[in-house]
């Protein structure tokens, strides 16, 4: 039995993270526990380094799903993004989705797409944004770039009210924003001051995938 999460479902959770306050993040590091049906399966770590309106965002994910002590699914993903203001100007990402390797390298010249590991640079179209939860401008977008597949996806982002999630062992009131349009909806949670603190989605078999800030 294989416990595949499905590339489309959780590839949305790769995106660079940090503060989502009234301004995009400046610099810092954020670490998220990754849970599958409330069982911890790994970590997704993000860092943002800024200089003026230039930002470098690095994302590293490492998940392992075990069934009866045996590794049933393994996922590794690394992405490095370069931003100018709210525009993505370069993306380099590599993914190992349970043994299936892929690479996306895109620059601000046209449309990006997924490619084999030895493929040439793909162009980005116009002022492109990825699933950048750290940047409040993401919530106003109707199209976002998926860093794992290299495809631009039509999305709708809506505020869905407030709730309480666990953050560092403490119940925390948060606002939920829902991203619909991809394979499965993604709920992104922000604190009262606008910091990204969690994420929920469903994956293959109806299982729940969650991110919680460490």
Structural class: mainly beta
Provide the helix percentage: under 10%
How can the largest sheet be summarized?
Answer: 12 strands, mixed
Radius of gyration: 16 Å
DSSP strand count:
14
Report low-confidence residues grouped into runs of 5 or more.
Answer: 6-23
Mean of all residue-level pLDDT scores:
82
Shape: globular
Distinct helical segment count = 1
Name the beta content range.
Answer: over 45%
> What is the oligomer described by this structure?
single chain
Order of helices and strands: HEEEEEEEEEEEEEE
Distance between the termini: 31 Å
Strand adjacency order, main sheet:
7-6-5-4-3-2-1-14-13-12-11-10
Write a short abstract of this structure.
By secondary structure, the chain is mainly β. The protein contains 1 helix and 14 strands. The strands form 2 sheets. It has a 12-stranded mixed sheet with strand order 7-6-5-4-3-2-1-14-13-12-11-10. A two-stranded antiparallel ribbon has the order 8-9.
């Amino acid at each position: 039995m294989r416990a595949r999460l499905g590339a489309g479902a959780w590839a949305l959770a790769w995106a660079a993270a940090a503060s989502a306050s009234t301004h995009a993040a400046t610099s810092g590091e954020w670490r998220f526990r990754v849970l599958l049906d409330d069982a911890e399966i790994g970590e997704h770590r993000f860092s943002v380094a800024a200089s003026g309106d230039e930002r470098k965002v690095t994302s590293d994910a490492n998940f392992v799903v075990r069934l009866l002590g045996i590794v049933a699914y393994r996922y590794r993903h690394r992405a490095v993004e370069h931003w100018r203001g709210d525009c993505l100007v370069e993306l380099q990402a590599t993914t190992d989705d349970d043994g299936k390797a892929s690479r996306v390298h895109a620059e601000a010249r046209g449309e990006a797409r997924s490619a084999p590991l030895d493929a040439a640079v793909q162009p980005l179209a116009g002022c492109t944004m990825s699933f950048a939860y750290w940047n409040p401008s993401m919530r106003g977008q109707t199209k976002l770039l998926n860093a794992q597949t290299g495809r631009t996806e039509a999305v709708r982002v809506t505020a869905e009210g407030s709730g309480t999630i666990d953050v560092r062992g403490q119940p925390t009131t948060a606002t939920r924003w829902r991203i619909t349009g991809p394979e499965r909806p993604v709920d992104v949670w922000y604190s009262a001051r606008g910091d990204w603190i969690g994420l929920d989605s469903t994956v293959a078999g109806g299982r729940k995938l969650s991110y919680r800030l460490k």
